[in-house]
Sequence to fold (263 residues):
Amino acid sequence: MTDLWKDLLACLDLRPTDAGYEGDNLPLDYHRLFGGQLLAQFVRVARLACPDKDVKSLHVYFPRAGRTDEPVTYEAHRVHEGGTFATLTITARQLKGVLATASVSLHKAESGPDHQTAFEVPDVPDEARRVDYHLMPWDIRSAIDLDAREATAPEFEFWMRTPEVDPELAPALTAYATDLTLIGTALRMVEGVNQQDAGTAFTSAVTSHSIWFHRPLRADDWLLLRQQAPILAHGRSFGRGDVLTADGVLAASYAQEALVRFT
Fold:
């Protein structure tokens, strides 16, 4: 876990190039780049391109799978930048072509009314409910077994807390975490199947992913990711979720569509 955490932080340390930025990949025993890595790097590119503003929303399409043995280059185009808002389009490339495209909106924080829906947030589960999601190298806990094979409601929530980290990296790390379990959440309504059956009972690939940041957050404080996947049909799944702090503050929301093709 420690090595993967260091590798992830290294991936977020992007290098400037003539075209924009370049990022390394997680050295995973996996057949393609993990989409969460690209989401996190898109967030970092946007922040580097507009350092006086924070990422407000990120909307990404994944037309092509990437290779883990080749760095990803990011080209950022400034569509508009004013005093408080900015809009970017960012393209992620490898030699074989475009891997992903992102539309990013950024915003400089303003004062004003602050209201939200009241969320009931349970206590963080104890150490006995700690789970290991291989691609998330930090403390994860859940009272729900995502890998159960009995058909049930397509809902799931888990708590996460990273090691101590620069707060500036929290949006990127949060975006990374939102990519991993939405397909598994959709599969909870299918009898006898779970996300561990990828590559045997079904094939899957994320086609688009969006995230909205509502407030500043810290990844090294407990965050609750609460999600639901209301539909799995026509070879696609759709899921959405919220990121809540331990005291019920809504920090971010996200949504994802994915290919889920049963064999």
